[in-house]
Amino acid sequence: MRIKVINPNTTSSMTEVIAAAARAVAAPGTEIVAATSPMGPASIEGHYDEAVSVIGLLEEVRRGETEGADGYVIACFGDPGLLAVREIARGPVLGIAEAAMHVASFVATGFSIVTTLGRTRIIAEHLVRNYGMEHHCRRVRATELPVLELENPASGARRIITEECRRALAEDGSGAIVLGCAGMADLAAHIAREIGAPVIDGVAAAVKLVEALVGLGLGTSKTGDLAWPLPKRYTGPLAHLEPFSGGSGAS
Amino acid sequence: MRIKVINPNTTSSMTEVIAAAARAVAAPGTEIVAATSPMGPASIEGHYDEAVSVIGLLEEVRRGETEGADGYVIACFGDPGLLAVREIARGPVLGIAEAAMHVASFVATGFSIVTTLGRTRIIAEHLVRNYGMEHHCRRVRATELPVLELENPASGARRIITEECRRALAEDGSGAIVLGCAGMADLAAHIAREIGAPVIDGVAAAVKLVEALVGLGLGTSKTGDLAWPLPKRYTGPLAHLEPFSGGSGAS
Amino acid sequence: MRIKVINPNTTSSMTEVIAAAARAVAAPGTEIVAATSPMGPASIEGHYDEAVSVIGLLEEVRRGETEGADGYVIACFGDPGLLAVREIARGPVLGIAEAAMHVASFVATGFSIVTTLGRTRIIAEHLVRNYGMEHHCRRVRATELPVLELENPASGARRIITEECRRALAEDGSGAIVLGCAGMADLAAHIAREIGAPVIDGVAAAVKLVEALVGLGLGTSKTGDLAWPLPKRYTGPLAHLEPFSGGSGAS
Amino acid sequence: MRIKVINPNTTSSMTEVIAAAARAVAAPGTEIVAATSPMGPASIEGHYDEAVSVIGLLEEVRRGETEGADGYVIACFGDPGLLAVREIARGPVLGIAEAAMHVASFVATGFSIVTTLGRTRIIAEHLVRNYGMEHHCRRVRATELPVLELENPASGARRIITEECRRALAEDGSGAIVLGCAGMADLAAHIAREIGAPVIDGVAAAVKLVEALVGLGLGTSKTGDLAWPLPKRYTGPLAHLEPFSGGSGAS
Amino acid sequence: MRIKVINPNTTSSMTEVIAAAARAVAAPGTEIVAATSPMGPASIEGHYDEAVSVIGLLEEVRRGETEGADGYVIACFGDPGLLAVREIARGPVLGIAEAAMHVASFVATGFSIVTTLGRTRIIAEHLVRNYGMEHHCRRVRATELPVLELENPASGARRIITEECRRALAEDGSGAIVLGCAGMADLAAHIAREIGAPVIDGVAAAVKLVEALVGLGLGTSKTGDLAWPLPKRYTGPLAHLEPFSGGSGAS
Amino acid sequence: MRIKVINPNTTSSMTEVIAAAARAVAAPGTEIVAATSPMGPASIEGHYDEAVSVIGLLEEVRRGETEGADGYVIACFGDPGLLAVREIARGPVLGIAEAAMHVASFVATGFSIVTTLGRTRIIAEHLVRNYGMEHHCRRVRATELPVLELENPASGARRIITEECRRALAEDGSGAIVLGCAGMADLAAHIAREIGAPVIDGVAAAVKLVEALVGLGLGTSKTGDLAWPLPKRYTGPLAHLEPFSGGSGAS
């Protein structure tokens, strides 16, 4: 099975962290194809960054359909473009926020999300509502660490995040922690040991859920609003994103 | 006051319908600047079309900021890119679905939305929830008319939509109708006379709400998650969308 | 266009503050007719005050209908009698809490309400739910200033309210402030400058929204539950409030 | 124990039906004091009727406080003025819609409301939400019988309502019926026998709940927003409704 | 009327406290039959304890049906087995959490629950949602007192709980307190005097609500999902719980 | 990895269907241990059946903990005892309703549940709410097939269920189907081919989700309310269910 894990920002060092986290949990027969968005923002820290990041993501998924990907992971905690991607994918597609929250709800009656900047908290809160997690998610906590500082050893990111996770357990009454950024993918195991409770990285969670769905023989439903895009004219600089004329969007 | 009304699809004949509807209600001192997206889909009928349409929309807003626009209307009923646009706009920004639903809630305790294809109904339903209109919106009704057929006299669109609006009043217990596509902007007055109840076109509604906000001296809040995008590197074909380095995103 | 702005309490000095706020934002062609309730409580600070205040309000609206009012503003933050007024009005009717909250949701993803006494907070919270603003309104904050103290320079009201607004931004993660009393109508501009974020006074907001609705040719729907009251016998001291027998409630 | 049951409309024949229903279930030591509103509409069939009806109701409650009433029932299915009445009452106060819905939720996992005119359905739906009954109330059904026709033997009201109740069980998956008008108080037992499921009249339900609360030694909380109204000046024709100056609102 | 009050744990000294609270409020003609579960946990402090406790409870209800019980009270704040019990009972069944929350909503617009261990708070929170009390219940507060410590004078339970109730009024803006454990049944009157606000013990509340329902002639609906269990084979150690073959579950 | 799949009813032929469905999707290294409840009802078709079924389930989980089970599947669509089981399990525990709904939400924006008897629909509806699936689940449809009839070829179950699934797609606007009974586990693939949309059997879904969680190194959180049961005395016929005294509930 081939799972394409796409980092929608352009920072390839972050893609490496993501790919490592994906491979660490992949089943023996699973091939992880990691991709970095070929265009757009170096990190995604707001609605604007997120909106622009979707184009590179869509291009990678279109390429994935021709390369034979069996499923996709969108490796940014805002789950940008999730439904748009599902329209052009035959196999299952998981966002890492979606994956992490659902997994957390299976192992605890309440969880907290620990994320980066306060200004992105609203994005997580919108996802909590979209996924029906209002009663499971006790709180979204911002550490005010910029995304790219996660890679900077001098930032103290690991310590700051671990402490915020510890506070979340104590103050929010949560039984599990969801890490709110793909750039934290390498921290989950360490923090779990430190705080003695499940800590969920969405990249790993999404890979395992895509494996599960493919194992069930399930792809994205092509009945209803996730059916292939209607054939129509696309023009201008994005004309190459026009859905394929062969009756389906991307095959 | 200058209000930029942006059609996020590339069909300029639809922009003309939109511009006419906007000008028909604009106050004496209001200048309507209508723009057609320079790229992307000819109509927006799904999550994929919508995601791609955001880029052309953002480019038009960036241009608007340099042209001195006092406010913006996003003239597609899915309100694509609404929060992203707000991040890069100084003045107020209204989506036409948002505008129409709020206005409907001021004149009736319940309304119905009459839209185009069934596959876009889910988009309207998500907006209903995002805007807190679950208790006001009684039902979203699809006519199965493709967007571009609205312009085709042979489609019988006016009659089909009028009949659906009539059924909505009778069956849904609604007191008002929201037209669910920018391409229906020229039908509101006619249908209102036919059915004897308020019929709200989002383009006109959004223009009047932007006028109201500018009249109140209000722009988009630059405190919190709608603040100017953080300065950062954008690369590749979308590098030109990089936020301005002068501390603000688009000025 | 003639907009009747009704202060449902009997304190005419407060009506003057309200009228000034309304006129300050009214468009050139808009005439503001300000009225003070002819009976009932001097201020509205609870469910009982509010219930009694509705009678004077209804009388003023009935008078407005004969005077040719094109729309109405109910200038008390509890929006007393809103749906009852809509039944007897041809034109649009806005409550100031309703207007302020909707406007706030257009310029920020979250807002806080700063109001007077803690005991009226429940009224604001009920309105937040009725208007579908649970996800936009982050918190309702009471200053424990009685309504009539707002007019007393010795009360320090301006300073106290400004500080509460500042705390709201910092602690609630809000991007805008809604002032929770008609008696604060003169403070919005000052506080906005002080805290650097949008501050919304409902009186001004409601006037502009009524202008917008009238500009759209919209009145209150007379289809459904806001139709003219059914003709019937009213007796006793309130017999004069009996709906007109001519088929409509108030014409 | 003395329970004052107030009919907020002015139709004394309806008060008689209400009083009989109340007395039929009252415990041995309970005295039912039935009162008809001294002013206002002959029936309550909309927001406007309801708003006006509150004044007569408040007067009767003020009188009740001096007469030694131990609790109150508001005998109109819209529960007009419920929180206002609670502010000026020492003992417990129940609305009949409130009482009926809560009781229904104790004997079935889902119930339907069968009411009079379609235009009042919105009032019932708002109460359903206020009381947290969204998941218990499966549907509000209108029979289009005007309130005063319930007393007219030629209207066929009993048959029409019984049939609607039967349909409710079959179509809504409900296990119990709530009758949506005080004027139906005499029909509950008959319909229950006919349809073989619990049928709840709010007048009887409210009397028993007030008895229960008084039996528990509970009155309305005077801590928080239901505390006695703040002392203040009331003027004009409603000046006599001014809260008592002795520190409490009505004693 | 005979009301069977069942303590689903096996601690008979707690049953005595419960029985005394029930008898203290019972009407003259009401006989309270108190029962202690014949099996299972000595106290209920988690999902597991609760699940096991249901068997003894069901056995006592089956016995109650043959003994002529007119209604039941489940005297544990988690309301274990509520719907299962309703299936096998002819008369009304109330859980004490259910009873207390509904009663609290009649005397205050907001209440707080003061309970025992933090780990059982989630159970109360689930009930708050099931009963539609999200808007009435302001907060669930844990004292970290184990259930059986409530009977230990050296635990300081009375003082600790009273102080928590006082804080609830001050910090949560609540007008009433719900005691979150059957073992607190004897504290309500004392705490109410101390804090000057309604304090509701669910045992007493449930007894009065069952009396009210029986007084209304209402039993559990046997239409729909609370109908007698379908006849079927039960085997193994719990074979004796097989529903009666005579067409009804337990008669 | 060893996953214990427990059928909480006593019908071993149904366990065989369940076991086959589980093994059909299990990964190479996964051992499926299927167990039939040793006591209680032959099928679960109501709240009472469900409550009683929990005891046998808990016994099988306690045994599973000593046998080295790495995770559990509760193979009844009501997910009986889910949180109780989680308290006494070290590894992850999934209910089949929970698993199926979450999986359905990954492949479609809306799904319908097709279940057995109308009287069990309420159980599914409660789970929909508990799992936050109100916006994803469009409708719960009953076929009125008793559970044990699913095994009877003469019942026409396969055809009846297939037709109901087809109607669900057409009428509910759903993109996927969730089968609402463990006894339907062998029908998913067939129906999916017939209707051309994803059909999800909870048994298979739960097995794959447990595999995913174990693959992520995640067990049930032992922080908070899912921690091991508190040590305490259990007496009577269920004394053997007393939590282990060694500090943990079941090890």
Automatic annotation (TrEMBL), chains A, B, C, D, E, F:
Q: InterPro entries recorded for this chain? A: Asp/Glu/hydantoin_racemase, Hydantoin_racemase-like, Iso_Racemase_Enz_sf
Instruction: Give the top-rank taxon of the lineage listed in the UniProt record for this protein.
Output: Bacteria
| One Pfam family in the UniProt entry | Asp_Glu_race
Q: Which family does it belong to?
A: Belongs to the HyuE racemase family.
Q: Report the protein name in the record.
A: Aspartate/glutamate racemase family protein
